[in-house]
Write a structure and sequence with these properties.
The structure is a single chain. The protein has 455 residues and is an alpha/beta fold.
Length: 455
């Protein structure tokens, strides 16, 4: 589900001093200048160039292409602007027809379909050329790995946390620098925010348009549960963890009265309420704050971000690049070199925070760190701190608390399962007499039938 908004999201070791020095993308990166790997001249088409409607990021991409080609004069990057990068109306057809770029963009959920369609190249023997590869969080790479073989590299990654309104926390007598870390603390905070008066909602939750199933998945992961079995053949949510998710929401809605009377919310509904300063907390990744600022005219400083409460795991996702199965070894090596340069080096390419700050872009959200708590990950965080334009303290609880939380991917048959799980989520939020055991049993049967039909 999150993949519908991932174009706003986030992955692009060097020592800190060296990383900062290459911030302008001038090619002084420690790479050996010269031609393509192996000495041959090669052209590669690369998808997901930022569109003309985003001139700042497009200019940065073009600058990086020029700097990279100067460093590697034997490689020509043929940038492809196909906005949106992932168009559900055309993506599957292009994939099946073998029409993807040499280095093509996809969500983490696209890796399996690309392999099944016979269109993604195995790049296992080439990733050693990515200097920071050894530090990439294994849970991030799991999305691009099948049967021990690697089929892609991450561009952006996210982990779900708790987004909260610092201004409402202060008004409600809560400490915005000490956000809730447990569900019990979330319940207490939600009640105090709701008590501010009519129109205020302490805690918001999705329950329609597949978003309810998406957040059910987030919450059961956090409690240590699962949605499907490891082999993807059976439902796995009719468990104490699944019941705890629904019971907690039912208690907040009907016992605490801290979730408001209107329900059946989807993405835009919660964004609207958070942006208007009427809702205290929701589950979300750092891109939620970008959405609130860019499209809801909210202030960055009004919001904080904390780690997922009591998390044994957190739903994560992102996007990245795969390689066309028709690529030659020279094209794969050239593509690996470009991805290493543009999206997997702190201080360079998409992580050139010095350049972003100079151009007035927001720097400081903990929105993309594929390396977690590794040395490369710490280098990235140090650079982000050095060039920050946003109040880093507001996101400290997330930045420090999320690094060690295992990232867990969405289940197979994602949208179909989410549609089924919308029903128990909406039921406990709209019916005080909703029977949780019956809801889970019914959803379990439907998901099992779905997975059986899929083989």
């Amino acid at each position: 589900m999150k993949s519908q908004k991932l174009s706003t999201l986030l992955v692009s070791g060097l020592a800190l001093a060296a990383a900062a020095a290459c911030g302008s993308g001038d090619g002084d990166s420690g790479d050996k200048a010269g031609g393509a790997p192996g000495g041959a001249k090669v052209t590669i088409s690369v998808g997901c160039q930022p569109p003309k409607t985003n001139p700042v990021q497009r200019d940065e991409w073009n600058e990086d292409v020029a700097a990279f080609q100067k460093l590697h004069p034997g490689i020509t990057i043929d940038s492809k602007d196909g906005f949106p990068c992932h168009d559900v109306k055309t993506y599957d057809a292009k994939l099946a027809g073998g029409q993807m770029e040499d280095v093509f963009y996809g969500y983490v959920g696209d890796v399996q379909p690309a392999i099944k369609a016979g269109q993604a190249a195995d790049i296992t023997d080439y990733v050693k050329d990515v200097k920071t590869f050894k530090d990439i969080d294994p849970s991030v790479m799991r999305a691009f790995t099948v049967n021990g073989r690697i089929y892609g590299l991450p561009r952006t990654t996210y982990k779900v946390g708790l987004v909260y309104n610092r201004t409402l926390f202060t008004r409600a007598g809560l400490d915005p620098d000490n956000p809730p870390a447990t569900w019990a603390e979330i319940r207490e905070a939600a009640k105090k925010i709701t008590a501010l008066g009519p129109g205020y909602v302490g805690y918001g939750e999705y329950s329609a348009g597949n978003t309810g199933g998406w957040h059910f998945t987030q919450e059961i992961y956090g409690r240590g549960g699962d949605v499907v079995t490891p082999d993807g053949r059976r439902a796995a949510f009719n468990t104490p963890e699944g019941r705890a998710v629904l019971q907690n929401l039912k208690d907040m809605r009907w016992t605490d009265d801290s979730m408001g009377t209107k329900q059946l919310y989807q993405w835009d509904d919660l964004m609207r309420l958070m942006g208007a300063g009427k809702m205290g907390m929701i589950l979300g990744a750092p891109d939620v704050i970008t959405e609130l600022h860019d499209n809801r005219h909210a202030k960055y400083e009004d919001f904080g971000l904390a780690a997922f409460p009591e998390a044994k795991a957190t739903l994560g996702g992102g996007d990245g690049y795969m390689f066309n199965v028709k690529d030659t070894p020279e094209q794969i090596r050239a593509g690996i070199a470009w991805l290493d340069y543009y999206m997997l080096a702190p201080g360079r390419g998409q992580f050139d925070y010095e350049r972003q700050k100079a151009r007035g872009r927001a720097v400081g959200l903990p929105d993309n760190n594929p390396w977690g708590a590794s040395p490369t990950g710490r280098t990235l965080l140090d650079l982000r701190k050095q060039f920050a334009t946003l109040p880093l303290a507001n996101y400290g609880a997330y930045a420090e608390g999320s690094g060690a939380i295992p990232l867990k991917l969405e289940p197979s048959m994602t949208q179909q399962i989410y549609q089924i799980l919308d029903t128990p989520m909406s039921a406990v939020l709209t019916r005080q007499d909703a029977n949780i055991d019956e809801l889970l049993a019914d959803a379990e049967k439907k998901v099992n039938d779905l997975l059986a039909r899929a083989g």
